[in-house]
Specification:
It comes from Actinomadura macrotermitis. The chain is mainly alpha-helical and 212 residues long. The chain has nine helices and no strands. The chain is globular, with a radius of gyration of 18 Å.
């Protein structure tokens, strides 16, 4: 198995959205502000007891504006701005790198930024997604509708295959399974371990062909 990649470093003020074009950053920052209010309310009064109307009021927007950014209340937990960031960083990796190695470098960069700015939010969202039944179901829907497509597109581009190629899709599901297994184990351990290192170790295991 290859060695774990070293996490990239950046200043504490670094925002992952700074990697994206200005127009996209503005929209995603509005989404983030709404999500921050939602997560605060979930922490204070519980997920089930919090309504969309309460989140909208806290964010000083109308419920109709809320639904322009989030289709459902569940999406304030499940969705984040990191898929487009990961896609951009992944596409910038050297073309000679195999897909798994390109992804390892991508996650080393993105996780470093997430941990600097959003560690507490990552813990809260991960816990909610794994403990609230409605969120567990929505997470799987979101994976199929969003993250899976993002990874299929990126892997297809890198390998010269169609994003609908069954082998690309199987490969992507394997990647997502590795990421989810690391997340569950991290949370089961009290979210005190090094999640980026856990993810990288398992991606290296995947790259080696899962030798047991």
């Amino acid at each position: 198995m290859t060695e774990n990649l070293t996490m990239s470093t950046s200043s504490p003020e670094t925002d992952p959205l700074d990697l994206l074009p200005l127009r996209e950053r503005k929209k995603l920052r509005t989404r983030r502000a709404i999500q921050d209010h939602a997560l605060r309310l979930f922490s204070e009064q519980g997920y089930d007891a919090t309504t969309v109307e309460q989140i909208a009021a806290a964010a000083e927007i109308s419920p109709s504006t809320f639904f322009r950014y989030f289709p459902t209340k569940e999406d304030t937990v499940v969705d984040d701005e990191y898929d487009p960031v990961m896609l951009k960083v992944f596409r910038e990796q050297p073309p000679e790198l195999p897909p798994v190695e390109a992804l390892r470098r991508t996650l080393a960069t993105v996780f470093a930024l997430m941990y600097e700015r959003d560690f507490d939010t990552v813990v809260q969202r991960t816990r909610l997604m794994m403990e609230v039944p409605a969120l567990r179901a929505r997470t799987m829907e979101a994976v199929r509708e969003g993250t899976l497509k993002v990874f299929n597109q990126a892997i297809g581009e890198r390998t010269g295959r169609s994003e609908d190629d069954p082998k690309v899709r199987a490969f992507t599901w394997a990647l997502l399974g590795v990421l989810m297994s690391a997340s569950y184990d991290w949370l089961d351990g009290g979210a005190t371990g090094d999640l980026p290192a856990m993810v990288d170790d398992r991606l290296a295991f995947l790259a080696a062909g899962f030798p047991l």
